[in-house]
Design goal:
Chain lengths: 254, 576
């Protein structure tokens, strides 16, 4: 069996006195589809940040694609980061840019600076961008200003960006939180479909528990920065899920 | 046009951006503490003004030269008959284009420096990436900022004199002299604009393995760009004035011709040149304010949820600007090869080795401190006068608008109001179009050389700048409270006293203090009139090739500037 994509060993993240993550152990194998659930403030976004290298772990070991985030040279880290695509809770698109540029931004990791700069004037690799946009169903929006698109369309642009990045792993932080439920389900199934098609590993934080339980094989429950459970979907009971979202008891220190 | 306000505040070097202003030393807390602090500052300011006025010689020395009144009259009479023959007009036109070209290229250079410097001094640049340690980040950020303090503290004229020694008479002198200090200021403002821009797209790109430069290009620059450009136009407007002043010290263009005509006291020629300068200045001001108000409208629209739109005026101005850059370098025959010519480097290194180690000179350190005091007094007198006059002009110069105007709207009243607005705007633009050294030379007709003519010259010029800033801030007052007061049946003058003054006063004070920071730097340029202080000393030292002394004076000047900046920031905080 090949080595895991991510290995987190006793990872903690704290902001001053505030602890966002504590003693998190998590291993992600190639091809897995994992849902992370938990109440807001549980540390889901922080976990995603640790995985894609934007949040530094204050304790523990993080190994991503064989690269130790805390010790490897910057160049090595970037090489790993290039193979991890992230789709965020709020879109990280630049509204002022045309769609083609926002999609091409997924290639910046493999482009030299001059090519990135040139592409803003004369878009490069347009065929590839068009193919990605076609795949997510908005091939006609290639030259629209991204800010003029609807919320759902923008989310599709974000997915197209990850597609051209051609990652081995997709992280999604509440990818459908800001669009209406019907559109959300469409996008979620698109994401699942794409990951299955390309054999890309998928890890998604979800607010919508039903969606998580309906489509993912492995579910990780996060609460107050700690892993409450990490199970196969089939082994998960309703009680465990309910406990995850229950109000904190008054005796628990805040 | 609230943008101006943000920029002006941001340009002050001591107001550390990004970090929240440290809480003012609290003794009494809350409202009473604040008002006590304010009263303290008010007393201190009053005392400083009185001391400065005495130091400047008001009421002590013979300052008015009554026999010069005739010449001054002749001078103004000549305004009606400027020299307009073809030869001189051609000369004036040529000089005008040269000054314009200096301003354009200087601004262009400052934008390049500003963009790179702004990125390197932004927090976004230093804070991204998973591995960089906090200490190293802070050190890098601090160092980048510190590097920019020195070029910012040195006036364009001093840069100009330095580069004249290095390159001789060459167009590159004016371009560098404008571009470097402006670039440092611009870098500071840009870094703040970048840090105000949402950072999520940028972080997302860095997270996907992009290099920081590429991530900046795609994630941070596009949203910040319209503000950056519109700030660039504001800098251009300032660059026109600087280009004229640089001409006076020998860099060519309108300023240079002015200096020649002044030496021979040919009044009609002086007037032709002054008219040309005013024309150029008005055109630049107008263009800049068109672009900036379009940008302000754009920001308003996106705040109202109207989405981002391309601004045709901005785009057109940008294209025109690019064309101007090309034409300008052709016109002045800019050849950047001189930058790496061996001779220039030799001169430059020679100059620096002459200047090192810096020496205090025969006045001693005490003498230097004395002169610093004189410089300070000159700046305080200047800013006091400019503040009062600026406020007087600002009110009529503000735009009469719905609900904001405090004057009854009869047809006659409206015409009167509009006339007053145009007239006061015209006065203000003339005051700031003519450089302070020229005002100083004119004052010498009727005054004996000294601190006072220097201070008044600075005051006249600063009135022009300050009056405009103040008028803009009256334009930006919230109209609702004024309407509310009027709806109680209050008369126009009551609305003015209860609505306009209280709302505008803090901003006026903030602008006044900001301009004080600029004025202390500008004391250097009125040295020509024998206005004392560090500026005059510096001029003497440079013309006597005493570079070691000049370096000391310069260091003192930068120190003084820093002290003024810190004081001003402290006062502004207590006013806020
Ligand atoms: N940059 C930050 N600075 C300080 N505290 C933070 C920061 N980011 C997150 N936190 C805290 O960490 C905890 C986890 O946040 P987050 O990971 O965003 O939760 P979730 O995504 O599950 O809602 C919260 O208590 C939050 O307040
Ligand atoms: Mg979150």
């Amino acid at each position: 069996m090949s080595s895991p994509i991510f290995a987190l060993d006793g990872v903690g993240v704290s902001y001053g006195k505030n602890t966002a993550l504590a003693r998190v152990d998590l291993t992600v194998e190639p091809g897995e589809r994992i849902a992370i659930i938990g109440p807001s403030g549980a540390g889901k976004s922080t976990l995603i940040g640790v995985l894609n290298g934007t949040v530094a772990a204050t304790s523990g070991e993080v190994t991503a694609l064989g690269c130790d985030y805390r010790r490897a040279p910057a160049r090595e880290i970037r090489k790993s980061q290039r193979r991890v695509g992230t789709i965020h809770q709020r879109f990280d698109l630049v509204e002022q840019l045309r769609t083609v540029h926002n999609v091409n931004a997924g290639r910046l990791g493999s482009w030299p600076f001059w090519k990135a700069a040139l592409s803003l004037l004369l878009p490069r690799d347009v065929q590839r961008v068009r193919a990605a946009l076609d795949r997510v169903g908005i091939g006609d929006k290639l030259h629209h200003r991204t800010g003029d698109l609807s919320g759902g369309e923008q989310q599709r642009v974000a997915i197209a960006r990850v597609l051209v990045q051609d990652p081995v792993m997709i992280l999604a932080d509440e990818p459908v939180a800001s669009i209406d439920p019907a559109r959300g389900r469409e996008i979620m199934s698109l994401l699942l479909e794409l990951s299955a098609e390309a054999g890309v590993t998928l890890l998604a934080c979800l607010h919508d528990v039903d969606m998580a339980l309906g489509s993912f094989e492995r579910v990780v429950g996060l609460r107050a920065g700690q892993i409450a459970f990490d199970k196969k979907r089939a082994d998960l009971t309703d009680d465990e899920v309910d406990a995850l979202y229950a109000f904190e008891r008054a005796t628990e220190p805040r | 046009m609230t943008t101006t306000c943000r920029w002006e505040a941001a340009e002050s070097p001591s107001a550390a951006p990004g970090t929240p202003p440290p809480p003012a030393p609290e003794r009494g807390t809350g409202a009473t503490g604040r008002s006590r602090r304010r009263r303290g500052w008010a007393l201190l300011i009053f005392a400083a003004i009185v001391v400065s006025a005495v130091a400047a010689g008001i009421g002590r020395e013979q300052v008015i030269k009554s026999e010069g009144a005739g010449s001054l009259f002749d001078f103004f009479a000549a305004a009606a008959s400027p020299r307009l023959d073809a030869d001189f007009l051609a000369l004036t036109g040529t000089a005008m284009l040269t000054t314009l070209a200096y301003a354009v290229l200087g601004t262009a250079l400052s934008l390049v420096i500003g963009l790179i410097g702004g990125i390197l001094t932004s927090q976004a640049w230093w804070e991204s990436g998973v591995r960089t340690r906090r200490g190293r980040r802070l050190a890098g950020w601090g160092l980048a900022r510190a590097v920019l303090v020195v070029p910012r503290g040195i006036h364009e004229v001093v840069w100009g004199l330095f580069f004249l020694v290095v390159f001789g008479i060459d167009p590159i002198v004016a371009v560098l002299a404008i571009g470097i200090p402006f670039g440092a200021v611009t870098a500071k403002v840009f870094s703040e604009l970048l840090d105000e821009t949402g950072r999520r797209p940028y972080t997302a790109l860095v997270a996907a393995g992009s290099s920081k430069w590429s991530a900046m290009l795609y994630g941070l620059l596009p949203p910040a760009l319209p503000d950056l450009i519109s700030y660039g136009f504001y800098r251009f407007e300032c660059a026109i004035r600087s280009a004229a002043i640089l001409g006076l010290v020998g860099a060519g263009g309108l300023g240079f011709q002015l200096a020649l005509s002044f030496q021979t006291l040919r009044y009609p020629e002086i007037w032709t040149l002054l008219f040309a300068l005013i024309l150029l200045s008005v055109a630049a001001d107008y263009w800049s304010s068109l672009v900036r108000s379009a940008r302000a409208r754009g920001r308003q629209r996106s705040r109202d949820g109207g989405g981002v739109r391309r601004d045709p005026l901005l785009t057109a101005s940008l294209v025109f600007g690019a064309v101007l850059i090309g034409l300008s370098s052709w016109w002045i025959g800019l050849d950047i090869a001189v930058l790496w010519s061996g001779k220039a480097w030799e001169f430059g290194i020679q100059l620096l080795s002459d200047a090192w180690p810096p020496s205090v000179g025969d006045t001693g350190f005490g003498g230097l401190l004395m002169l610093a005091g004189v410089t300070l007094a000159m700046s305080i007198v200047a800013i006091t006068i400019a503040f009062a006059l600026g406020a007087v002009f600002a009110v009529p110069a503000s735009t009469p608008a719905q609900g904001r105007d405090h004057i009854e709207r009869g047809a006659m009243a409206r015409i009167g109001r509009t006339t007053a607005m145009l007239a006061s705007r015209f006065v203000l633009v003339v005051l700031r179009a003519i450089p302070p050294p020229v005002w100083a030379l004119l004052l010498l007709f009727v005054m004996y050389p000294g601190i006072l003519p220097g201070a008044i010259a600075l005051a006249i010029y600063t009135t022009g700048v300050l009056g405009r800033l103040m008028a803009e801030s009256v334009d930006n007052l919230d109209a609702r409270p004024l309407r509310a007061i009027r709806s109680t049946g209050a008369s126009a003058s009551k609305v003015f006293c209860y609505g306009v003054i209280p709302a505008a006063a803090p901003r006026f004070v903030a602008y006044g203090l900001y301009r004080w920071e600029v004025t202390i730097r500008e004391t250097v340029v009125v040295g020509v009139v024998g206005a004392g202080g560090l500026g005059l000393l510096l001029q003497h030292q440079i013309s006597a090739f005493n570079y070691a002394g000049a370096l000391t004076t310069l260091a003192m000047l930068i120190l003084l500037t820093l002290v003024v900046d810190i004081t001003s920031a402290a006062i502004r905080r207590s006013v806020r």
